[in-house]
Design goal:
Length: 254
């Protein structure tokens, strides 16, 4: 049985990529934002559906202060500086610091409405910032949005094999292909001597990806200027080497 819902009449989204992480805090929202920037700069009409309902951080990274508007029937996404269409709970709350203390079914209903009741205007690629983890809420999102494939975000820690396996199992349960893996905070490059340091431990991402037959891998460094851009709402102005890495990675997803 297919529970997945249809878009609103007049909306159009060609491809949907879910960005998932087996656990929180690995930089899933950061990678979603950067992938969207990479896609938009590569010429695709890009959108972000922020399905991280209780921890929405996308509008802040893009410096969006305005709220989403509605004609009483459909919601209009807010466009970023470079034209990325964005919908997020933070665009609906009176204050971005208001907590969202909803239970699973309400959260899932909200994500569903972001798909069915938003006027997505001629979108080539939509990135979905999925709720963290592999529990009830991400599963419900998979059931309501026709995700074409997922990108898994991890960091190089001991538990990463198990965490990736959880994400892989979730994807296979939902019958969604894995398009690639991003190892975030993979290393730190010393700005003075340019030597690389593996702050969170040695990377095993190649072995792990090979184990699951995934050949598309990107490795992004810890970069304080990237974090500063996200904090300042200027993620679209970021031009570091990892954006080039993500553009190359993005081209392997399409
Ligand atoms: N490569 C990076 N270099 C420097 N800082 C980073 C990098 N990636 C993410 N960060 C910072 O780490 C923090 C967590 O990132 P982010 O919010 O994207 O994680 P998340 O996985 O989406 O979290 P959650 O699971 O809570 O939704 C943010 O402050 C972000 O700016």
């Amino acid at each position: 049985m297919d529970f997945r819902k249809s878009l609103h009449e007049g909306s159009s989204v060609k491809k949907v990529i879910g960005v998932v992480s087996g656990k929180g805090g690995v930089g899933k929202s950061m990678i979603t934002s950067l992938l969207a920037v990479a896609a938009q700069q590569s010429g695709a009409r890009t959108a972000i559906l922020d399905a991280d309902i209780t921890g929405p951080s996308i509008p802040r990274a893009f410096g969006i202060k305005s709220k989403a508007s509605s004609d009483g029937v459909v919601l209009m996404p807010v466009s970023s500086k470079t034209g990325i269409q964005i919908m997020s709970t933070n665009l609906l709350l009176a204050n971005e610091t208001d907590p969202v203390i909803w239970r699973g079914p309400v959260i899932a209903g909200c994500v569903e409405q972001f798909w069915t009741d938003v006027m997505w205007n001629d979108v080539d690629v939509m990135l979905v910032d999925m709720p963290p983890g592999t529990g009830d809420v991400p599963l419900t999102v998979f059931q309501s949005i026709p995700v074409d494939g997922i990108v898994i975000v991890t960091t190089p820690q001991e538990l990463v094999g198990m965490i990736v396996e959880k994400a892989v199992n979730m994807a296979s349960t939902m019958n969604v292909p894995i398009l690639g893996i991003v190892e975030n905070m993979s290393y730190f490059e010393c700005p003075d001597c340019k030597s690389r340091h593996e702050i969170f431990g040695k990377s095993h991402i190649e072995e792990i990806a090979a184990q699951y037959g995934i050949s598309n891998i990107a490795k992004l460094p810890i970069d304080s200027s990237l974090a500063a851009n996200a904090d300042a709402g200027t993620v679209e102005d970021y031009s570091g080497a990892d954006l080039a890495e993500l553009k190359a990675f993005y081209s392997t997803l399409m």
